[in-house]
Amino acid sequence: MALTPEQQAEIEAARAEPRPTLRAVAPGMEAQLHIAHPILDHGLIRVVDYMGDDGAICQAARVSYGRGTKAVSDDRGLIRYLMRHWHSTPFEMCEVKFHVKLPIFVARQWIRHRTANVNEYSARYSVLDREFYIPAPEQLAAQSRTNNQGRGQLLEGAEAQRVLDILREDATRAYDHYEDMLTPDPEAGKQGLARELARMNLPANVYTQWYWKVDLHNLFHFLRLRADHHAQYEIRIYAEKMAEIVKDWVPLAYEAFADYRLGAASLSAQARAVLKRRLAGETVTEETSGMSKGEWREFVEEWG
């Protein structure tokens, strides 16, 4: 992980000068503020700012019918009720802003979550660093035979080394050409290509950075998809660290999210009917289930 000297100085200054405030604070999140957590080989994630806590969720939910109860046990019950019944608006009262450093191909997956505010490092104005994501050997796998967007058997030995060498050599060569195109050399008659054009030659494993601000409801949606074991490893590892941070920030809300979203399983109408038939003692097969082959495979993986 590499922070620029300016970023490190900013972090040290922010953590060295705590300020009194009248707003609600979450002790767990206060401990997380500005800490840069290393991700992958050169990536990081850190909390820049946040707003709200578990109490803010309950406050928003109760505003329509007065003060209500204030005991922690009542707050927990209310939050679980809200999560269980998909009442999302109270969770939108909490927000968090992350600084994330990530490979460009991960950023292109991430940006599909369009319910956040994003400001990315601009390669039109600045030169990207010579940093590429090279997978660890245990993350190199062949294409899955059953999942068109998943991984199968691990590559080993000479084949794994050959792939790593190609990834490293291609990234290095592309960056060398990027630097060469950017660099003016009057004696050689080179003006130097504009940064906004030179960047198009860079591979998708080059690192970029952004600030990503999102409310808790939409962050939970991101985590439900990206912290799931089916998600691609390179984005899942970011989501798993974010989940740890959220657990420190809003422990009651995270507990409800883990129970009703992250650790839960949804049922289609057909799957529900099959379960009812099974509970009634009927033996249901793929042929009698009414499901497609893929649906039946996923059903059996979840329910046996």
TrEMBL record:
Binds 4 FAD per tetramer. Each FAD binding site is formed by three monomers. The keyword Transferase applies. FAD binds at T89, R112, H113, R114, E120, D215, L216, H217, H221. It catalyses: dUMP + (6R)-5,10-methylene-5,6,7,8-tetrahydrofolate + NADPH + H(+) = dTMP + (6S)-5,6,7,8-tetrahydrofolate + NADP(+). Pathway: Pyrimidine metabolism; dTTP biosynthesis. The active site is at R226 (involved in ionization of n3 of dump, leading to its activation). Its cofactor is FAD. Pfam families: Thy1 (PF02511). The keyword Flavoprotein applies. DUMP binds at Q109, W110, I111, R112, E120, Y121, S122, A123, R124, R199, R226. One of its GO terms (molecular function) is thymidylate synthase (FAD) activity. Catalyzes the reductive methylation of 2'-deoxyuridine-5'-monophosphate (dUMP) to 2'-deoxythymidine-5'-monophosphate (dTMP) while utilizing 5,10-methylenetetrahydrofolate (mTHF) as the methyl donor, and NADPH and FADH(2) as the reductant. PANTHER family: FLAVIN-DEPENDENT THYMIDYLATE SYNTHASE (PTHR34934:SF1). Homotetramer. Belongs to the thymidylate synthase ThyX family. This is Flavin-dependent thymidylate synthase. It comes from Phaeovulum vinaykumarii. The gene is thyX.
